# Entry
Amino acid sequence: MEQTFGKYQLIEKIGSGGMAEVYLATQIGDLAGFEKQVALKMMSQNLSDREDLVIMFLDEARIAAQLNHPNIVHVYDLGRVEDTLYIAMEYVEGKDLRRICEQGIDQGNFISREFAARIIADAAAGLHYAHSSTDNQGQPRNIVHRDVTPQNILVSMDGQIKVADFGVAKAEDRLGHTRVGQRKGKLSYMSPEQFEASKVDARSDVYALGILLYETTVQTRLFRGRSDFETMSLIANSQVTPPRELRPDYPEELEAIVMRALQKDLDKRYQSALELQTALEDWLHAQEKRVGPAELSAYMHQIFPIQPKAPAQELPLPQAPEPRAIAPPSEAAAPQAQPAQVTPAPRSAPTPPPAAAPPKAAAPAPELAASPQVSQALATEEIDRSSLRADGAWQDDIMEIQAVSNRGTYVMAGLGLLVVAGVLGLAGYSMMNSKPGIDTSESQRIKEARALAAQQLDEPLKPPSFVDVTLKTDPPGARVVVNGLAAEAMTPGEYKLVQGEQNEVIFYHADHPPTRLSLAGEVGAQKEATALDKYAEKPVAGVLEIQSDPPGGIVYVDGERLGEAPQVIEGISAGYAHHVQVRKAEHWAFAGFFEVAPEQRNAFRVSLAPRESISYQDKVEVTYDVIPKNSEVTVNGELRGVSRLQAREPRNQLLRVGLAKKYSEPQEFTILTHEIGTFTLRSFLEARERREGTLKVATSPEGSIVYVNSSSHRTNPLTLKLPEDSYDMVVETPDGVRHETRVEVSADSANSYKIDVQDGVLQINSTN
# Structure
């Protein structure tokens, strides 16, 4: 069905519904035969006059586009072709968690607890990144996903985990907002506070992750009653049967994690998705089994074996069943029409066969003798098919997948096709996000991943060798930070440098700006006292506030011990990167650099990882929070991504961090991942001098206000002189509705745009 849509070549429709259609498409570039496969979601033209739906569609793209994390589906583009709005997003070649569970039941090879924990831990990493993300001014965006369901957790055939669909996410910078008392999300995966339409925060998503963890490790639905009323009662009362009551073999440590994630009392629940991730990483580490992308990929290929390629055709999607639940004892004993029985899933990671085996029929459950030691639920593991139905949302779904193409291995026609409920239906494309004709042998990437995993050591890298070096400053009395870690003594004194390496040393003195130098790790590296820089002019004062999680950490700022958190430091010099270190008994220390913005309160909450946390024995959580956004981050010469991003870096390693952005001065930092659990690098890149260009904007309707660089303009048409760059622009129409777009200003030239807002939709055209 090859067809051109703007700069995209449509390959095949992979989903459609009341609000949008989703296509597998190829983005065609202008140079060197550039091509990129994407999932293209196009809004139905008959909804273009529904302002509320248009705003939701735009919000979905805007929120996700600003998130750059390996565990979140990337959004590449938001645009319009003629009258059709579209979102171009990452094409994930794999399946969603709901389909994985169903296929596991069908084949008697349900996902192992270790694999389930890995999937939820990685999803938690992506959600924590979203929860803690900031805007271009460094202010919290307060994102809450609100739709953490099996359909929105994707697993690629290469074993990567992705969180999808921020269509109903709560965020400070949404164009549209949920009304008081209005619920957003799917009923069976709501937290109690979300169900009660109360104010929600990141802990609501933690609760939803707890539901997924429960269902995938206990093999039964948690909040699914025989009626919506019964389901609502279960959610409102947060009635959770402990896993060990249903599965006597269930690990006690994993049960503790599940039950804490599902605490109705917010204060007793994990306070962040990072806490839940850490707990799961610790549990996985204790299992002494490697559970990574290569192992998960092998399982995916095992339960979704390659089938002969079928001719491409569009098939209707019939009404689909709910993910199959293992009936509790009272229901399992009830008469069923030809119930299908399955063998309990193996608990260890499956060993992949030389080639993927064909699907096998469901095996009958083994007969277990009834005894006080054996749960009746295990003795009657039957699938309650009579009550299976699609999982409805709290409100009517705006989009349901109704048609797919039967192409390649992973099309689910003939297996009982699913109706994927989703407010914006992003999960629709994800279910079918797979290519035809994949080789039955392992891909080269999987082979390489296996080889790398086999080479990795279970123990962390050994601490580096240090050499004691005497350092002096003029004037004396400076505090010292070496490779991102605060030293105890003031100058002059002896300090430990990494032997044989270039070390970054920063001197902090009350009457001088920070002075930075590079020193070789050898005795006598400093030949004479370092003269401290002088302020070119009196610095502007700022306010720095540090809180710790858990509370009570001892705060050090620029090497000086201030006392227990929270600490508020007023009059601190703004425009400079100040060093913060927080220590607490039985916890890994936190360290980081925070550049203080002038004349505002710079408040940060730092996380302290418990010393007993196994996952931090060989890794350190590093956050690269660089402004302007999308600044490139390189680590030891390799591009790591663009800010804001988080990474788990090897312990006891020197990280040479480079920060760069077009039209900005680059920066470099050296960080030693030693004796810390978490590190944050928050820096502002100084803008380079740029030539100016002219921006001309004509808007309609009359009376609209245009915001550029946070400045408002009522003149129409508007003419501004601006430095060359890309600019976010907000157009506020007379009815008070705001619309965002982006414009380019080129040096020494006029850049003209005509902006027209009709029926709540912004159209922008360059008139150069």
Q: What stands out?
A: Residues 114 and 284 are 7 Å apart (CA to CA). The radius of gyration is 28 Å.
